[in-house]
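Morning run. Coffee first, then this:
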Amino acid sequence: MNKSVIIVGAGVGGLATAVKLLSKGYNVTIYEKNTRIGGRVNLIETDNFRFDLTASILMTPEIYKDVFRYVGKDYKDYINFIDLDPIYRAFYFDGSHFDLFRDIGKLTESLETLSKKDSIGYYKFLSKVYEKYLIANKYFLNNSFSQPLDFFNFVSLQKMLKINTFSNAYTHISSYIDSDNLRNLIAFQSLYVGISPFDGPNIYNLVPTISQLYGLTHLEGGMYSYIEALEKMIYEFGGKIITDTPVEEIVIENGSATGIKSKSGIDKADIVVCNADFPYAIKELIKDNEAKGKYTDKKISKMKYSCSTFIMHLGLKKKYPELSVHNIYIGDDFEKNIQSAFFKNVPENPSLYIYCPSKIDDTMAKEDMECINITVRVPNLLSNDITWNEETINIMKDRVFAQLSNIESLSDIQENIIYESVTTPYDMLTRFNSYGGTSFGLSPTLLQTNYFRPHIKSPTVDDLYFVGNSVHPGTGISIVLLSSKLVVEEILKKL
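And here it is:
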């Protein structure tokens, strides 16, 4: 008889895990609290527009494709990747702009408009961080560290010293780059893991390096098309997805996970995989204090958490050809306004990430229309200093539009809006059970990464596994897909 698996949560990690286990003959049922699957990788659909709700930047497409290869499917039958160049267009508060190209010739020409010294420095920076990436990918990102000796051994510790993560990301960038504009553009990208470039370890300079070396890709139909592809494969393999059904408890008997409790009662399974945010799951879904292990409610509350995001979704009745797909606006007093998200204040002059998929994808907006997301890093809800009411939302919108007015070609955006909505930290908390309304889960500090991050395999409960942002190896869709890979490997080991 094939083993049965229940997966709590239909986020990208849970869906990818389901596809792989189904391909190995497991019987898999997914329980999802919301009507629409996908977790934070979600969408908004209107008559004229299709918006990605949060996630929009696709790095390392091979990791996405690996899920299809694993189960013997051709990804081209499900999704369409579109390579991007430039990978970013940067706008600055002084009215200037700068393109970061994937093409090496165009990139060199663009860098030389800053200075030849910075052009040389940027390539040296990429080379050094690329070396770190190869080490991290081989020895850390693809290992589960389920046992202490998996991490605390001579080779791992030697490699940790080799990648030297002790300086912060911004200091490390500054050792190669003199131009403030280029430094800030690189540093901004470390925010994609919810950590400040002025405090976070320099290992997160992997983010801009990977983007540059491997390029950025757009999925036709937006990021949610990947969720739709995973859903289609789950049904092809005979899996089940039960929506509108919040899980109330992970049932634990005699030291083993044996199922879940929901409004429908108790459903049994041989294995439980939890795709709910780890801190939320430990506090709310595991009722047995002994099963929590070291992650007591007190410890959970004292751990460090990532920032959150304020996202404006705007449907526009005209095209803005000056925009690329991925755009970054660097505001005045960059450090102060970036740090505000980590010091419990909303930024006064925010730097912005502007996502415009309709630039190249006609499925995202009707003809002669544009859809954009504008994202600002803001504090999570754990400080209780900010209430996301109508007044706060309007303050943030006004500040965003004030910044956009510094980009001459975007100065008329407000008068061309025909659809508008926002996503706040409160939405992260209530819709997706994200602990503290964070957008990126547990902060990836040095003491909350690798062996020190919550493990994918419960050390206290048999047959219980975790996948998602807040567990090893970390945050971001590509990395969550790696955590799914590790979870499946651990489950198969038991056979």
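The longest strand covers residues 308-316. Good start to the day.
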